[in-house]
Design brief:
Number of strands: 0
Keywords: Cell inner membrane, Cell membrane, Membrane, Sulfate transport, Transmembrane, Transmembrane helix, Transport
Organism: Alsobacter sp. KACC 23698
Protein name: Sulfate transport system permease protein CysW
Pfam families: BPD_transp_1 (PF00528)
Structural class: mainly alpha
GO molecular function, one term: ABC-type sulfate transporter activity
Oligomer: single chain
Distance between the termini: 68 Å
Strand content: under 5%
Radius of gyration: 26 Å
Number of helices: 15
Amino acid sequence: MVDVAAPRPVRRGRPALRNEGALVRGALIAVALIFLAFVLGLPLLSVFVEAFRKGWAIYLEALAEPDALAAVRLTLLVAAIAVPFNVVFGLCAAWAIAKFEFRGKALLTSLIDLPFSVSPVISGLVYVLLFGAQGAFGPWLKAHGVEIIFATPGIVLATVFVTFPFVAREVLPLMQSQGNADEEAALTLGASGWRAFWTITLPNVKWGVLYGVLLCNARAMGEFGAVSVVSGRIRGLTTTMPLHVEILYNEYNTVAAFAVASLLALLALVTLVLKTILEWRYADRPSGGVSH
């Protein structure tokens, strides 16, 4: 009797699947790159092309114009006030939600996301209805000589409103993922709540805080909708950089408009680079990663 070896199973389809997977992957990458080139790359390139269309001298002259300098100063001032405020709020809100149990916790978590679901124009209009001349507190403020709407305080309030979720939303998932074991151990050893926060909680979320600060600062400097409602667009006084760009563009001063816009574009690029560095540097660290 002659032993006949059992036929080996024939593996079919693997090379085809591998080739098909490579083709699909390449097609998806090509579509993504083409989309980014048309939607992001070309508009960004056009900003710098238009800004330098008449040369460096005109570009620098547009940036040195008094109203442009006033817009830059106001933008930096508003960001310098709004960002630290949101850092404090974000840390406090995230710490309370992640580390404590209290009535209204779900409501607080939902309210943090409110600026993401409300149009910035609507939020600006709310401040006008509250603090404007015909608003709920308008007559009292006017009688006491306090200006909020069409002044710097109103711009700061509107900016704070649209930017306060960023730090809280970056820090909260980190605190929740880390739990309370380290803080409870510190309290057991005699540390106070503040000492546990400064020595354990805050160092564990420092990169999330920095990530949130980057996003918060970029949004604060680039905010248009809410600020346009409460500012009154008083040239040289209550116009931030985005508003100043719109004013120049409406006056057909395109070179100056794109010159100021190029500063905002550079801010966006710097923010993107720093964001990428943070994600690449600390994504694999359990206590220092950045949430997405």
